[in-house]
Amino acid sequence: MSPPAQVLILDDDRFFCHLVRDELGRAGLDAVAEHTLAGARETARKLHPDVVLLDNQLPDGDGLTLIPDLLRANEDAKVILITGFPSFDNAVDALRDGVHDYLTKPVDLEKLRTVIRRALRTGELERIEQVARRRSAEERDSSALVGVSAAWREVEALVQRFAAAGSPVLITGESGTGKSLLARSIHYAGPRAASPLLAANCAALPEGLIEAELFGVEKGAFTGAVATRKGLFEIADGGTLFLDEVAEMPPPLQAKLLSVLEDGEVRRLGSATCHPVRTRVLAATNLPPEEAVASGRLRRDLYYRLNVLRIHLPPLRDRPDDIPPLCRHLLMRLPPGRGARLGPGEERLLRLYPWPGNVRELKNVLERSLMLQDGAEIHPSRLLEAFALPAADLPAGGDETLLPLDELERLHIHRILRACDGNLTHTAQKLGISLSTLRRKLRDEPTAAT
Asked: Residue 268: which of 224, 299, 233 has the closest Cα?
């Protein structure tokens, strides 16, 4: 439960201060009264009031001269000027000096409560906006695309080309390849970057709630609909809505989604009125969309409407050159990762692993390795339980395709090391070599080029 709002009452009329303080106390507000500029300045410095009721004529000076001190104590404070000598010039000067609202004496207590509630609500909305802007900036920073491979450069080029458009984009790729990251990149690279970006996972939302979540609901539309509520399409109006796992959406709702894309209007559940929306849709699926259409999971007409622009994210196993920069990027972003680096030979081993979970698996392995590290170097390859060379990398015959002896030895050492859960003593015993020899071989392993 948040603490009550602090209200500072500054007026030389003690009876008025007492009356207002009691009234605000009954309303659940914590009010303190002062009668001089000096006393109010000290109280403001200690309490950091949310709202200040300020008389402009006080025994030791003009109340307006206190405003800079009040805003230094709390820059979000809302100052409400209460004066018994109203004039147009006085009101203009007060608003110019930073006054939030203006009342004249005698003050109606009901009106005063309304003005204070409105001031507190304004402050609350300003804080919400600050949080939203900070979160948006963090999301923008985290939407950077990381990779150096030719396949990834093609993806980046498509992102830049599609970001300026308003048409739907269909993002395909295996689970864990970064489809939600790509959606954020498209949004923040385009003209809608300052507008909302909302996301919904169609596979995670219950079938009975997904329609209300996306399209909104009118009061009384069903049991429990006690108020009218906008859906994500309306909330994201002017911005972007990312629909993940769109092929998991129930077929009747796919038809409604198609209608929104075609007409630019949304109709809330239980309503006969349509509301215009200018929301751009980015959709993603980890299923080959053509197969989803053939099996009946994805409506053919919706597929054609979503497939105006399309980006396919290649799996991590098809772009091993992206693994080193991804590791550096992820290690910098993971909380305990600053200053950590991959141990000798790790980049080469990570390149050889097939990564069935793609970038999500790489991030999880790095995070776990950071938790278990004893020094600045980490060895995530030791945590790969199903490590094996992809079939395409196995020697197929002929001297030119055989792996060098030192490479085979290194791979064998790391397989035994993983089987022994990273225990060097047990690994040396299994290999039939001394512990010092094992340490030397690990230390002398070549480091993959960065």
From this structure: 233
